[in-house]
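As agreed, record passed on underneath.
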Amino acid sequence: MATNDTIADMLTRIRNATMARHQTTEVPSTKMTRSIAKVLMDEGFIASYEEVGEGVKRQLVLSLKYKGKGRRPIITTLKRVSKPGYRVYSSCKDLPRVLGGIGIAIVSTPNGIMTDREARKSGVGGEVLCYIW
């Protein structure tokens, strides 16, 4: 099925998989979803990701992380900020701090996809894609 908003699709699949306590979830592989998966792994929200399949049927398999005996998910909330019909841009000085620094904002900058902290440190702004905590 074709989708216009691959980022919202990815966030929804992760949200649904964590609510159902699944160990892994599959997401269609694009440059954007690979970059977001890399940021999520670097920040410790997912354990790992790998690309499977060939051609148009490529998928990213994300291994989700849980903590404790109750298997509480590491990711509690995923919120899409910039949407196809409403783009949200921010300068490096105005980048939002998610929950006072506990969460992250994923930002699409001229230097690539990065967290709000990395963008502030690099002195670049861009499109605020989503919040995760």
